[in-house]
């Protein structure tokens, strides 16, 4: 399988949302990365259901939803109804993570778990075979445009070993500060999917930037 690029809509121009969604549709990108923040789990509020509904209406690619909210169980069915294909919850926000993962799958979505930069890979040992995706945060969640944390490479290798050792099929996604400077090393370490917000949308030609990232990764 080829490696995947997931532009983060958080960095799009919300005044021209349909234009930016169409740009992703017509690019070499694989997924739409959708960041939902509640101002409680993270110190920022992004956008919510009505905006996702508008995105889903035009998006023709996989919708990868990253929930940065407390008690995400409350909204699993809502996100399924809004067209999410992958639903990722934070390890740090789930008291009964196993139950949450089963509920996401029962609602017909792929299930992911995100880890904050300080959370070790080892906490996933007993759930890794239940997961479709692990999202490693390479910045502290809450804002786009932050600098990549170098310790991420080590975590990607550790996770890759855990996945191979446990014969899990789960994908490794990296989120935060991804650019053409770190993309190759992340893929070498074992990443399968790279989220990129500012690097794509703040560039002069986002379509070309996506194509460039895609070629670096494959
Ligand atoms: C941060 C979000 C990221 C963010 C990435 O909390 O989870 O998805 O949009 O943005 P960049 O690529 O600008 O770091
Ligand atoms: Zn994200």
TrEMBL record:
Cofactor (UniProt): Mn(2+); Zn(2+); Fe(2+); Co(2+)
Residues at the catalytic site: 35, 175
GO term, biological process aspect, one: pentose-phosphate shunt
UniProt pathway: Carbohydrate degradation
Keywords tagged on the record: Carbohydrate metabolism, Cobalt, Isomerase, Manganese, Metal-binding, Zinc
EC number(s) recorded for this UniProt protein: 5.1.3.1
Cellular component GO terms, alphabetical: cytoplasm
Positions contributing to substrate binding: 8, 66, 142-145, 175-177, 197-198
SUPFAM superfamilies linked: Ribulose-phoshate binding barrel
Reactions catalysed: D-ribulose 5-phosphate = D-xylulose 5-phosphate
The keyword Transmembrane is annotated on this UniProt entry: no
Molecular function as annotated in GO: D-ribulose-phosphate 3-epimerase activity; metal ion binding
Listed Gene3D superfamilies: Aldolase class I
Cofactor binding note from Swiss-Prot or TrEMBL: Binds 1 divalent metal cation per subunit.
CDD domains, alphabetized: RPE (cd00429)
Chain positions recorded as a divalent metal cation binding sites: 33, 35, 66, 175
Family statement: Belongs to the ribulose-phosphate 3-epimerase family.
Matching NCBIfam families: PRK05581.1-4 (NF004076), rpe (TIGR01163)
The name this protein goes by in its record: Ribulose-phosphate 3-epimerase
Organism: Tenacibaculum adriaticum
Name of the coding gene: rpe
């Amino acid at each position: 399988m080829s490696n995947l690029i997931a532009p983060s809509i958080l960095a799009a121009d919300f005044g021209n949302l349909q234009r930016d969604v169409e740009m992703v549709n017509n690019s070499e990108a694989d997924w739409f990365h959708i960041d939902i923040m509640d101002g409680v789990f993270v110190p920022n509020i992004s956008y919510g259901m009505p905006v996702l509904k508008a995105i889903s209406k035009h998006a023709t690619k996989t919708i990868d939803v990253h929930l940065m909210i407390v008690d995400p169980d409350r909204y699993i069915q809502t996100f399924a109804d809004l067209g999410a294909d992958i639903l990722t919850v934070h390890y740090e926000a789930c008291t009964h993570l196993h139950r949450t993962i089963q509920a996401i799958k029962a609602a017909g979505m792929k299930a992911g778990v995100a880890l904050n930069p300080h959370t070790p890979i080892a906490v996933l040992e007993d759930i890794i075979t239940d997961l479709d995706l692990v999202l490693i945060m390479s910045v502290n969640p809450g804002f786009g445009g932050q600098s990549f944390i170098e310790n991420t490479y080590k975590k990607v290798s550790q996770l890759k070993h855990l996945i191979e050792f446990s014969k899990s099929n789960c994908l490794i996604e990296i989120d935060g500060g991804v650019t053409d400077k770190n993309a190759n090393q992340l893929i070498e370490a074992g990443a399968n999917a790279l989220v990129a917000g500012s690097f794509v949308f703040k560039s002069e030609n986002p379509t070309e930037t996506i194509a460039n990232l895609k070629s670096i990764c494959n």
